[in-house]
Amino acid sequence: MSQLTSHIEQVAIEDLVKTYGTPLYVYSKASITEAFKRYQDAFGARKHLICYAVKANSNLSVIRLLADLGAGFDIVSRGELLRVLKAGGDPTKVIFSGVGKTREDLRFALETGIHCFNVESEAELYRLNEEAGKLGLMAPISFRVNPDVDAKTHPYISTGLRENKFGIPYDQAVRLYEAAHQLPHIAIKGIDCHIGSQLTELSPYCDAVDRMLKLIDALKEKGIELEHFDMGGGLGIDYQGETLITPQTLVDMIYEKLGDRDLMMTMEPGRSIVGDSGYLLTEVILTKENEGKHFAVVDAAMNDLIRPALYESWMRIETTQASDAPVHNYDIVGPVCETGDFLGKNRDLALSAGDILVVKQAGAYGFVMSSNYNTRGRAAEILIDQDQAYLIRERERLEDLFANEKVVSFDER
Ligand code: LLP
């Protein structure tokens, strides 16, 4: 039987649902704070920069909370940079990743004065040099090097293999660093890699560190000294009883391999900072049985939480109180007209219409990946601090969904 979740920190889920309705994303401040501190503690007094990957959960209040804890930020768009600035994050702690930065993106980040660009192609290097030149600035860079290791995670979230679109090929790295060294508006600062997400084994990280250190040493021999080494993000969380790598284990492994090389370590964790903090609350609209198969149709759908549909991710789904209803083996599905619209399959639950279900570990890649498919407004978001709930994003109103559209009339043509 499933577990019960009745409170988030000290706030009763029942009260949240009464006040804010469903579907509702709720985050725990204590959980985010603890997760971030685990990274800080892992580094201790060693020089480091933890750049939270904004893509995992980009709500302004979440960014603000992490900024207050001392975080830097890993961004992948101009929009994310604007969010960081709006939330009061420090631009000098921002690193800019992504394979498709436009000239506008580059200019905006140059003018803002970010910590580093993670350059992902030769074309981007020359473009960045040009744009920096026009502004009379130096662009601080790392190359994101693709170490060609198998992260042993879902293929859609594996990024460090030769066939993935990310980064520059390992074999080209020395040549590109030498080219960058000659450019008048490029300042080489570091090296970066990111091999995938939801990693639960240490060995791919070990292989990646070994390969990156080889490169760092080869560059030093050519007279190119780096200031920082960015190992990306990727630590997995416990969705379904996975054994986890702790930040401490990862950081200790890296420093052991670093030896006496004097490099500032940077990391870009996303999921492992915010994933556990989040809950998606949804109400059972009705239950139905088709030819012996039981369905609970809930008011959250794939547009609210796409992870189960997109990656067949298994996410914990719990009820908020004990029930006398019979236990059935349910597929928990949303109202969207797609067979792929499910939050969970084959869950033994005692359910009736009106019950509240709690999807756990929904703080990362949940709300941020939500859409308006089927003209469904996106959920509200709440941040809990002990016994207080703060509305950090209003529920979208249906009128908002077509506010930017125009009705073209052809009557008078
Ligand atoms: N750095 C870079 C360059 C990345 O591409 C990512 C994630 C991260 C850091 C943060 O990785 P994390 O620590 O969160 O694993 N939507 C998928 C996950 C996509 C991850 C994309 N890149 C999911 O829901 O599982």
Automatic annotation (TrEMBL):
Pfam families: Orn_Arg_deC_N, Orn_DAP_Arg_deC. Residues 30-274 form the Orn/DAP/Arg decarboxylase 2 N-terminal domain. Substrate binds at residues 271, 307, 311, 338, 365. One of its GO terms (biological process) is lysine biosynthetic process via diaminopimelate. Signal peptide: none annotated. Pyridoxal 5'-phosphate binds at residues 234, 268-271, 365. Keywords: Amino-acid biosynthesis, Decarboxylase, Lyase, Lysine biosynthesis, Pyridoxal phosphate. Residues 25-363 form the Orn/DAP/Arg decarboxylase 2 C-terminal domain. Its cofactor is pyridoxal 5'-phosphate. It comes from the Bacteria. Its EC number is 4.1.1.20. It catalyses: meso-2,6-diaminopimelate + H(+) = L-lysine + CO2. Pathway: Amino-acid biosynthesis; L-lysine biosynthesis via DAP pathway; L-lysine from DL-2,6-diaminopimelate: step 1/1. The modification N6-(pyridoxal phosphate)lysine is found at residue 55. It is an enzyme of class 4 (lyase). The active site is at residue 337. Belongs to the Orn/Lys/Arg decarboxylase class-II family. LysA subfamily. Specifically catalyzes the decarboxylation of meso-diaminopimelate (meso-DAP) to L-lysine. NCBIfam families: lysA. HAMAP family: LysA. This is Diaminopimelate decarboxylase. The gene is lysA.
